Amino acid sequence: MLTNEIKALADSWEEMAKDIRRMLHRIPETQFNEFKTSGYICSVLDTLGIPYKKGYGGGTGIVAEIKGSGEGKCIALRADIDALPICEETALPFKSEHEGFMHACGHDAHMAIALYTAFILNELKASFKGVVKFLFQPAEEGDGGAEIMIEEGVLCDPQVDVCIGGHVMSEYETGTVIYKKGSLMSSPDNFEVIIKGTGGHGAYPEKCVNPIVVASEVVGKLTSLTDPNVPRVVTVCTIEGGTCPNVIPGEVKITGTARTFTRQSREEVTRLIEERVREVCDEYITGYDYKYIPLYPALINDDNITEAFMESAKKILGEDKVLPTHQVSMAGDDFSYFAAAVPSTYVHIGCRKPECEEIIPIHNPRFTVDEDCLKVAAMCYCEFITDFLSEEW
Ligand SMILES: [Zn+2]
Ligand SMILES: [Zn+2]
After folding, report:
1. Same domain, 126 and 11
2. Ligand 2: centre distance to CA 220 (Å)
3. Is 269 within 8 Å of 260 (Cβ atoms)?
4. Single residue among 231, 263, 293 that ends a domain in this structure
């Protein structure tokens, strides 16, 4: 409906959005410490006169709001704001100024896209009804700020009807948006096992239970729980034990990650890991401690909202640039809490320059986004938001 206006406004705000992304790229901060980042977002919102409240999600989260011309529905756009403890290896002129930290997951782009969307919608607010909320959420990597923000009431007053979000992905070329109905990303849980043994002299293993031997068998058994048919992944990622070459340690600690998509398979993997550990420990007549640490639920997209988003995106990008995928991702994202609370969709935004053949994935020290993707994403968000809020919906 407002497609042409959105495109024209997107052109006029594009340079500003790129500058914002560069500024944010310079100051990466990890979960719950995004103070400079949060301050910068507030200063941008102040400049534009867009109202917001801060202090959410442990302190650094922000909720900005744009009200349309009258009563209507409410839609939220979520942007994650944290970075990673990775030492940047790009040659960008606006490279990280925080030694050892980097926006290697593209959250600098997510923030810039959300602000870009806000600039455009702020100019169009006389043309739609209802409210748009912008959720700047800390700590997507790891502990998860989404659940905290929901508990703080960001989906209430006014009640959010629909939530949208997305992630830049270098697997896809700039100019494309990729969608999937239903299950999209896994529930990325952790587990911890301590194998007890009896320590002793390395020369007399027959007098001890060597927890390293027990742990070695446990690792094999846990790894074999990975099953693409479920789908389910179980990966052991750390193993710690022992101090020197001639002492058998008293215990060994194993940690890893378990990824599933349904509540049933999540409960099943919790039980299966312990069963495998117990089988091996019983054989060696020794004990163990086991802890399953649930993190986020799986991210499940709403079919209708996803379909509607895709229709809006096609108005902006054309049929051939809005692409379905059937692939689920074994990664996780705590956007899943929003998606579990209200009908939602989470899309992937292509961010690899079309002429660039090498795919440098997110979380890589050389990862970077093609900034042309900011406009693509912001226009699609604006189109869907205004379509959703329009009376014809
Ligand atoms: Zn990440
Ligand atoms: Zn990310």
Report:
1. yes
2. 30
3. yes
4. 293
Is residue 393 scored above 60 in pLDDT? Answer: no
CA angle 183, 189, 193 (to 5 degrees): 150
Domain of residue 239 covers 187-293
141 Cα: distance to centroid of ligand 1 (angstroms): 6
Active-site residue 296, yes or no? yes
Tens digits of residue pLDDT in 170-204: 999 999 999 999 999 999 999 999 999 999 999 99
| 170 C-alpha to ligand 2 centroid (Å) | 12
User: Which ligand lies nearest to the CA atom of residue 141 in the structure?
Assistant: 1
Number of domains within the chain: 2
End-of-domain residue from the set 259, 275, 293 = 293
Report d(CA 298, CA 110) in Å as an integer: 21
Question: Over 70: is that where the pLDDT of 391 sits?
Answer: no
Active site annotation includes 116: no
Ligand 2 center to residue 195 CA distance, Å?
A: 34
The token pair at 265 is 């398979």
pLDDT category at 392 given cuts 50, 70, 90 is low
Q: pLDDT digit string (tens) for 63-112?
A: 999 999 999 999 999 999 999 999 999 999 999 999 999 999 999 999 99
CB contact burial 259-298 (16+ within 10 A = b; e otherwise): bbbeeebbeebbebbbebbeebbeebebebebebeebbbb
- The residue with tokens 């009431």 is 153
258 and 379 both lie in a single domain: no
Annotated active-site residue in 179, 288, 296, 381: 296
Co-location of 371 and 306 in the same domain: yes
Distance from Cα 146 to the centre of ligand 1, integer Å: 14
Give the ligand with the smallest distance to the CA of 110.
2
Which of the residue ranges 106-110, 140-144, 158-162, 286-290 would you say has the lowest mean pLDDT? 140-144
